[in-house]
């Protein structure tokens, strides 16, 4: 068993694992479960500072993204796809799959989305039903400023679908203030429950657009409208994965009780970036650093696999990346339950040893420097 310091799935606490082993009731027939489900959804909404409704769906993070596109898109709809990362670009497939016409707005994959440039583009191009964007594009660690981008799009009446699967609960999100119409999250990133669940947070505008379609949704499982009035009817569109939801609730109870959640993510992420930089290792991005994941370039003369193997020999799993980034970067996931000092110090120590073993010259000892930076940033 490795310590998984990957950008999802993340480590799962004992409280979450115990909650998943509770005795099961029949989630279709026992109305107590409907109450439990609704309460859990309301807890998520309150943690995300919104009056909007949250729905938990029985499927991995991708289901939330697909369901948002499936339920919003009618054939011929124009959709703006903001692309400065692999998940960003990937939304175009979901849009086309359901008959929409994606317009890809491509920006640098090394810098956070330039809000002024987007504003200039929108002045002449704003005939879109909705826009898709990614909060943290995990393969590169790219963080986009949804607090500015979503209100900007909303000014033109463009609905927003935000993939925040790897950012929510590691980066602060205020759904109402940011005017997000559909926020998509997942269980296995900063929430730190096992993979298998996704949640979507829907604004009134998003629901109106979904309910007032003139064509049927070309899916059942990805159709969010099937949840309409589930509480009044005490009826879910399909049998809910009850044990997964018990675990998810325990994870959210821990998040709700954590007064230092965002501060801890900020300090650990900042210290990680400062440490790698001081050691002479190049961070992959120029801007847009997420506090949930740090991505660095492979030093000359060695490979990603060599680093990953060296880490595994020391009991720790880091992640490489995929597609355009395969073999070029290593990712450290310091989100959710991974964002704790002992595990991060251990990770830095293992990385120090693994890199030196491979002949990489480091300007500072990673673990000691990291600890010192954390102490300094905490003050
Ligand atoms: C993890 C993640 C998802 C969920 O999908 P995976 O199957 O785990 O890739 C969606 N979006 C982002 C940005 C993610 O990081």
What does this entry show, briefly?
With 379 residues, this protein is an alpha/beta fold. It contains 14 helices and 13 strands. The protein has helices at 14-20, 31-47, 61-72, 86-97, 115-124, 146-155, 175-178, 204-211, 230-233, 242-256, 261-279, 304-313, 341-357, 366-378, and strands at residues 3-4, 53-57, 78-83, 101-106, 130-134, 136-137, 142-143, 159-163, 182-186, 198-202, 293-297, 316-317, 329-333.
Overview of this protein structure:
By secondary structure, the protein is α/β, with parallel strands linked by helices. 42% of the residues lie in helices and 15% in strands. Strands 2-10-9-8-5-3-4 form a seven-stranded mixed β-sheet, sandwiched between helices. It has a two-stranded parallel ribbon with strand order 1-12. It has a two-stranded antiparallel ribbon with strand order 6-7. The mean pLDDT is 98. It binds pyridoxal-5'-phosphate. Residues 8, 60-62, 87, 134, 137-138, 163, 165-166, 186, 189 line the site of pyridoxal-5'-phosphate.
Q: What percent of the residues sit in helical stretches (DSSP H or I)?
A: 40-55%
Shape: globular
Distance between the termini: 35 Å
Number of strands: 13
In angstroms, what is the radius of gyration?
21 Å
Bound molecules: pyridoxal-5'-phosphate
Strand order of the largest sheet: 2-10-9-8-5-3-4
Number of helices: 14
Structural class: alpha/beta
Mean pLDDT: 98
String of helices and strands: EHHEHEHEHEEEHEHEEHHHHEHEEHH
| Main beta sheet | 7 strands, mixed
The percent range for strand residues is 5-15%
The low-pLDDT segments are none
Topology:
Layout: E1 3-4, H1 14-20, H2 31-47, E2 53-57, H3 61-72, E3 78-83, H4 86-97, E4 101-106, H5 115-124, E5 130-134, E6 136-137, E7 142-143, H6 146-155, E8 159-163, H7 175-178, E9 182-186, E10 198-202, H8 204-211, H9 230-233, H10 242-256, H11 261-279, E11 293-297, H12 304-313, E12 316-317, E13 329-333, H13 341-357, H14 366-378
Parallel strand pairs: 1-12, 3-4, 3-5, 5-8, 8-9
Antiparallel strand pairs: 2-10, 6-7, 9-10, 11-13
Bound molecules: pyridoxal-5'-phosphate (PLP).
């Amino acid at each position: 068993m490795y310590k998984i310091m990957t950008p999802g799935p993340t480590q799962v606490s004992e409280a979450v694992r115990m909650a998943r082993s509770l005795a099961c009731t029949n989630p279709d027939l026992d109305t107590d479960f409907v109450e439990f489900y609704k309460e859990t959804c309301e807890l998520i909404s309150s943690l995300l500072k919104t009056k909007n409704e949250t729905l938990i769906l029985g499927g991995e993070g991708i289901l939330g993204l697909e369901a948002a596109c499936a339920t919003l898109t009618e054939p011929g709809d124009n959709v703006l796809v903001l692309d400065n990362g692999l998940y960003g670009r990937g939304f175009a497939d979901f849009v086309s799959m359901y008959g929409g016409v994606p317009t890809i707005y491509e920006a640098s994959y090394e810098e956070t989305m330039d809000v002024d440039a987007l504003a200039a583009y929108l002045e002449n191009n704003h005939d879109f039903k909705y826009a898709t964007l990614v909060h943290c594009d995990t393969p590169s660690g790219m963080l986009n400023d949804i607090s500015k981008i979503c209100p900007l799009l909303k000014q033109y009446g463009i609905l927003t679908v935000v993939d925040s699967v790897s950012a929510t609960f590691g980066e602060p999100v205020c759904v109402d203030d940011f005017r997000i119409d559909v926020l998509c999250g997942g269980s296995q990133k900063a929430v730190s429950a096992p993979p298998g669940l996704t949640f979507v947070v829907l604004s009134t505008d998003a629901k109106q657009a979904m309910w007032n379609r003139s064509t049927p949704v070309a899916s059942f499982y990805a159709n969010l409208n099937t949840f309409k009035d589930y509480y009044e009817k005490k009826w879910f569109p399909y049998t809910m994965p009850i044990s997964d939801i018990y675990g998810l609730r325990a994870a959210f109870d821990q998040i709700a009780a954590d007064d230092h959640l965002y501060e801890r993510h900020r300090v650990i992420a900042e210290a990680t970036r400062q440490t790698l930089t001081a050691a002479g290792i190049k961070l992959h991005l120029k801007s847009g650093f997420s506090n949930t994941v740090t991505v660095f370039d492979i030093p000359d003369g060695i490979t990603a696999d060599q680093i990953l193997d060296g880490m595994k020999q020391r009991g720790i799993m880091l992640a490489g990346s995929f597609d355009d980034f395969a073999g070029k970067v290593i990712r450290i996931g310091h989100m959710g339950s991974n964002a704790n000092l002992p595990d991060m110090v251990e990770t830095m120590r293992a990385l120090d040893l693994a890199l030196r073993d491979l002949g990489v010259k480091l300007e500072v000892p990673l673990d000691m420097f990291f600890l010192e930076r954390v102490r300094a940033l905490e003050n």
